[in-house]
Amino acid sequence: MQNLALMPRFLGALFYYSPATRTVRDLLAAFSSGDWETFYDWPEPQEIRALCADMQEPDDYAFSVLFEGQGKMEAPPWGSVYLDKDNLLMGNSAVSYRRFLQQHGLALASDINEPEDQFGLMLLALAALLEAENTAAAHILLEQHLLPWGYRYLDLLKANRVSAFYARLARLTEIFLRDMQEKARLKPSEPRLWF
Fold first, then answer.
1. For residue 37, is it within any domain?
2. Which UniProt keywords apply (predicted)?
3. Which residue in 1, 67, 152, 158 has its CB near the most CB atoms, within 10 A?
């Protein structure tokens, strides 16, 4: 399971950490080195190559607008915004997800005061479950907590007007998640989305 955990860890970090961090700078080096497509057995390798070709690095402003909430957010990265009628952070869906994490011994260890249902953090939690070879919990995370709203979020991010990098990253992540869903025969819940 170590190899399968690599992609959600890589993607999660790009969705969660600022481009100014060393972590993201190191990960972005994979785009220019050509290693990106070797990290996973991609179902559409030609599209992956096209997405990664000439990938421009994101800037702090784009990250701030898309992930920290500078002004009106086109694509909020928190599940509860999509799943809870009032679009509130820390709504019922976030509380349910927090309980899920606690049941599986996962806790957020961050200096940032942020809800756990942030898209990148959820990918990092998925990676941790896969690394622990807890496939059943990883599938629950996907079916009940991430995929019900994740594709809507990625569609919005693909259409963002701030950053081509994050639009391409959204498509790359969509390909990865749909492939995981198909291979594991996952059936995500289909709640009403409010955003």
1. yes
2. Chaperone
3. 67
